[in-house]
Amino acid sequence: MEEVVGSAGGKQGRCLSLNEVSISLAPSVVTTNVQSKLCLFGRILSSRTFIDKDVEQTCSNMRKTRVKVEPTEGTLAGSNTFRFVFENGSFSKRILEHGPWCVKGEILVLLSWSSGFGVKELAFNSIRFWVQIHFLPLDYYSRVNANVLGALAGKVVFIELDEAKPVTWKHWIRVQVQVDVNRPLCCDCYFKLANGDNKWIQLKYEKLGEELRSLYLDHG
Fold first, then answer.
1. What is the pLDDT of residues 101-153, one digit of tens each?
2. How many Å apart are CA 35 and CA 16, to the nearest integer?
3. What is the DSSP string of 57-99?
């Protein structure tokens, strides 16, 4: 690139080439680590427009803790997209793990903080649900079977089952899954027992309110 000499306000100036003014910067390890613990990104799936103050008030009531909500900048973020900053890393983790959440009746999709957000668009296309697997015979209680059944709902994130401690078992197995918002929910299935009989299994989704129910169950 050629050097260009110009003038501004009657003064001669020298415009530097791109190679001359380009510098190299590295992300801060400290701030990257802090943001990964204290920050979440979220998008409200709605045709309505929300402001950060309304979202902040709703989120503060979720866990009775202070949270700072800021609208994200840039066209890649999309509308109704916010950055959530918590005082304590344990709160951000609980909010992410104990969803789904709604803001004024509309679904809030949350993602963990990602380095480089704003450079590329984040995909707000899934929600974490806790799913209860009901009517599974006790001799079929296993993490392998729980993973197979949980996968009917979505990508399995966590299985709440200690196979070696039946004293901790409930009447269901609890599995956390990442569910695609564009797919209908799987609510039941059958499997064949050792004696050849078909056994019905029910999947119950925790915190499936009317808003989420209409979004998922009305797909079909």
1. 888 878 888 888 766 655 456 677 788 889 999 999 999 999 999 999 999 99
2. 35
3. HHHHHHHTS-EEEEEPPSTTT-TTEEEEEESSHHHHHHHHHS-
Is the whole model's pTM more than 0.70, yes or no?
no
Sign, CA dihedral 207-180-183-149, equals negative
Query: What is the distance between the alpha carbons of residues 160 and 130, in angstroms, rounded to a whole number?
Result: 10
Mean pLDDT to the nearest integer, 4-11: 52
Residues 166-171: contacts with CB within 8 Å, 24+ apart? 166/138, 166/141, 169/138, 169/141, 171/134
Domains of the chain: 29-115 (3.30.70.330), 127-216 (3.30.70)
